[in-house]
């Protein structure tokens, strides 16, 4: 048997989930599985008391055309027994995702019209999808009181015909029913499951700003009442014998309690309820802060959940979307193996400890690099940046990342690593050795990073693969990290901006001018910049952080984040379980390659475009500027070597040198530092009729840019059951978990001068009352005086 709900006497409307009816069902009954269409019509006439002699009926079934948990209802006209039997079979098999047959009945006087065309009143799936998309901004709830009003269907009958119909519908006895919409509670309403019933009742009262108390919540009966003892409202619901649906049996009384909105938390808004609301938000963004969740919920219901409730809702949503943390470690090795099978050439390296079981190892870290990224890096500039971020999940740890730069300076995600412990010498050494051996190879490279000791030590170790003494590696500081690491004792906003300006100057004259300004501003800051990064036998190490002293190894890239933040490519990655983290790097890397491949496809290689669009635009702008320069003097040092003095429009002179080996230089240093000819060099090329294309570094070539992003990512099967068999060892997540209890806040404490800190003394304390250093608030004389006064009174 299966339930049938019959709706009549109202009109069809389009709601957030598609077709709906503006009246509650006029009748419901359990039908036999083998019921025919003729038997159904006789039963409809019997239950609705429509005069069969004077009227015919049009039967339209409310069909769920959605997929999964999303519902999109359309009207399916039922005209013959074959269509009816198909509907019954689909319902019994639950293939429609809806276990109740809902029939919308239209009574038509025989003198007015006959059965409608089957397609006259039906709504296509596309129309329902469009209606649902119009309400997608509020799609997380079962309903929304602020949703857009939909245009109702035009009536098929005139006013006179409808009056005649209403007189004949029930044999001189009309049905007096209150109009309801899809967002209302009413007796007789059916729900597919107990969870749907609970969610709907809870959301309805949250929207109404009324509070509920659950009296009975079991598999058979569900009873709730208003929390206000003076309000007598109560709802009774129960399931059928097979528990295939739940129905509201009775609603007692009306709400007389206050429902003034105060914008605060709602007692019935649990973190489980919020987690269902934010699933799409987490799925799209990868992560959302508790504050963002609070704002998101407030826009829906005009109430703000607590910070802790929003935090737990986010954790639950992440678990629902990406799985449990322990299970994620179990799936990590098989998933990486599936990626390697789908993308041959993908590199994976494990860092682990042995256990008693030879088939299980204790996880300490894993590094991976996708094959398309390894191939694409071969056509990038010889520069990489490395960085790390903290993992905020259940087991903590750090994530390491290495990125490269294409011809136009766009980031190419190259390699990743997730480690259990905090970053230290061992973890960075393990990752960088693997990066050199398996990913980048022996190619000379410039590495841009921050000033961590664990990273700096790599470039001083001869066996690390990154020893700067061999000429195969060149280490440079990120200008952003340099400015952030200025000691707080003399750090100001103006000084930070001045340091960033000085570090990015390509002309030695401007660099020296900026250093003089820093010395005039703060002598200590000047001395710190001179000594930063120096070895014991060095007076200065300007080449580590200034562009003009770089020597051209960093190709003009000053900050390791380049044109965009590294971790902005992977939003919310710090919050994910380990397997979901790896999956996100694969998905976002594939999206980056697809996006850049589409952008670079516009390069017109067929029209002899030699360089990428960015360099082509730079050359055109500099050629226009070179037309305003003037050649002052030419000195021939040899048969094919010349030294030229070029004067700009502002009467500034630069010296250009051109040799027979196509090497060129200028006193402005742009050609040496970036590999792109400056306007002074282009002015000389125009004077001598030299093809300036030979002076551009080949790293900016258009064909190399196309080859960088030409590789395709092939995703592994989505289901673990479809992954290739994995015969390797398993990795245990026996990591140190975060301590239980209240989340700790990072409280900033003022720094205490070293001369005031004495071992064993209270010099490190600052009084909260008198703001004096040397004692705490508890020991303050003011606090003691207040205590004595209170005791006397």
What does this structure look like?
With 793 residues, the chain is of the alpha+beta class. 32% of the residues lie in helices and 19% in strands. The chain contains 23 helices and 24 strands. The strands form five sheets. Strands 13, 14, 15, 16, 17, 18, 19 and 24 form an eight-stranded mixed sheet that branches. The longest helix is centred in the last third of the chain and has 23 residues. It is elongated, with a radius of gyration of 37 Å.
Q: How many DSSP E strands? A: 24
| Overall spatial form | elongated
Unreliable sequence segments? 112-181, 737-764, 784-793
As a whole number of angstroms, the C-alpha radius of gyration is 37 Å
Quaternary state of the chains: single chain
Strand residue percentage: 15-25%
Helix content: 25-40%
Q: Structural class of the secondary structure composition?
A: alpha+beta
N- and C-termini, Cα separation: 81 Å
Task: Specify the number of helices.
Answer: 23
The mean pLDDT is: 79
Question: What's the main sheet like?
Answer: 8 strands, mixed
